[in-house]
Write a structure and sequence with these properties.
This protein has 3 domains: 123 residues, Tetrapyrrole methylase, N-terminal domain (Cobalt-precorrin-4 Transmethylase, domain 1, 3-Layer(aba) Sandwich); 102 residues, Methyltransferase, Cobalt-precorrin-4 Transmethylase, Domain 2 (2-Layer Sandwich), CATH 3.30.950; 44 residues, no CATH class. Helices cover 42% and strands 18% of the residues. The protein is built from 12 helices and 10 strands. A hairpin with a 7-residue loop joins strand 8 and strand 9.
C-alpha cells in the first residue's frame, strides 16, 4: 500500500488531496487516509483543535493550516503557490468529506483553473451512512444544511416535496423543532429517520411517520442527519375530499389539531393524508 502511495506522489507532484475523516468514531478512517496525511507537507483543516485529536491518535505530525469559511478565499493564493512549489497538500474537514457542506469548493475550483490534480481519498459519510440504514429508496437527493432565511427554506422544501426519492438534510435540533410544521406541510404521508451522534457511544436513530414527528429536546448536542422517504403511494386512497368531509373539517378546525382531524377523516374514508392536511391549512388561512 505504501509503495503505491509513493508512486502516486511521484506522478502527482502538484496535487491537492481531499481526505475524508471520521464522522464521530476516530477508528473510522482508512489506512490510505492515514498514510496520505502523514506524507502531507501541509494539512488544511477547519478547526485545528478538533483535527489535532485525530492527528495525535495516529501520530500525524504534518503542518496544519486553518482553512474555514471565514478565511478560505484568503488562503487560496498561498495554497496554490505551495502546491506549485511541489508541496503535498491535504484538505480535511472537522468530520466527513471536505467540500460537502464544508469548506473546500473554492480551493477545488481554483485548482481546476490552474490544472492542478485533485485526488479524493474516500471515507466515512454521514449522508451515505444514514441512507444505508433508512430502509428508504436508494435514489436520494442531498440538500445539506437548512438555510438561515425562512423564505428560501419554504421555497426549497416545496420544490423538494415534488421529488419521488429519499431526501437528506443536515440540521440542528433547535432548527428542526422550529421547522416541524413546515416539514409536515411538505412531506406528510412520508416516513422520516433522524440520526443523532452517528458512530459515537450515544448514537441514536429515531424512526416515525412525518405526521407523527414530535419536537426534540433542545439541549441535544451536535448536528442531526435526517432522511425523509420517497413518496408512499396508497393506490386505494382517494385524492379528493367530498363535501361532507369538508364540512366536518370546517366544524372541527378550531377544536382539534390537524393530526386529530386527519386521523378522524382517514377512519371515515380512505383519503390521502396530504389532501386532508392541505385542506386544513387552507381553512386555517381563511379564518
Amino acid at each position: 500500500m505504501i509503495e503505491n502511495l509513493k508512486s502516486a506522489n511521484r506522478v502527482f507532484k502538484k496535487s491537492l488531496y481531499l481526505v475524508s475523516t471520521p464522522i464521530g468514531n476516530l477508528n473510522d478512517i482508512s489506512l490510505r487516509a492515514i498514510e496520505t496525511l502523514k506524507r502531507s507537507d501541509y494539512i488544511l483543516c477547519e478547526d485545528t483543535r478538533i483535527s489535532k485529536n485525530l492527528l495525535e491518535k495516529y501520530q500525524i505530525k504534518s503542518n496544519l493550516i486553518a482553512n474555514h469559511k471565514f478565511n478560505e478565499k484568503r488562503n487560496v493564493v498561498k495554497i496554490i503557490k505551495l502546491i506549485n512549489q511541489g508541496s503535498l497538500i491535504s484538505l480535511i474537514s472537522d468530520a466527513g468529506t471536505p467540500g460537502i457542506s464544508d469548506p473546500g469548493s473554492i480551493l477545488v475550483n481554483e485548482c481546476i483553473k490552474n490544472n492542478i490534480n485533485i485526488i479524493p481519498i474516500p471515507g466515512a459519510s454521514a449522508v451515505i451512512s444514514a441512507v444505508s440504514i433508512s430502509g428508504f429508496s436508494e435514489k436520494f437527493f442531498f440538500y445539506g444544511f437548512f438555510p438561515e432565511k425562512d423564505k428560501i427554506l419554504k421555497e426549497d422544501l416545496e420544490n423538494l416535496s415534488k421529488l419521488n426519492s429519499s431526501i437528506v438534510f443536515f440540521i440542528s435540533p433547535k432548527k428542526i423543532n422550529k421547522n416541524i410544521p413546515l416539514i409536515k406541510k411538505n412531506f406528510i404521508g412520508r416516513k422520516i429517520l433522524i440520526c443523532r451522534e452517528m458512530t459515537k457511544f450515544y448514537e441514536e436513530y429515531k424512526r416515525s411517520k412525518v405526521e407523527d414527528l414530535e419536537p426534540l429536546k433542545n439541549n441535544l448536542k451536535g448536528e442531526l442527519t435526517i432522511v425523509i422517504s420517497e413518496k408512499i403511494h396508497d393506490k386505494k386512497a382517494s385524492q379528493t375530499l367530498d363535501e361532507s368531509d369538508k364540512r366536518l373539517i370546517k366544524a372541527m378546525i378550531n377544536k382539534l389539531s390537524i393530526k386529530e382531524i386527519t386521523d378522524l377523516i382517514i377512519r371515515k374514508n380512505d383519503i390521502s393524508k396530504k389532501i386532508i392536511y392541505d385542506y386544513c391549512l387552507k381553512i386555517k388561512d381563511e379564518k
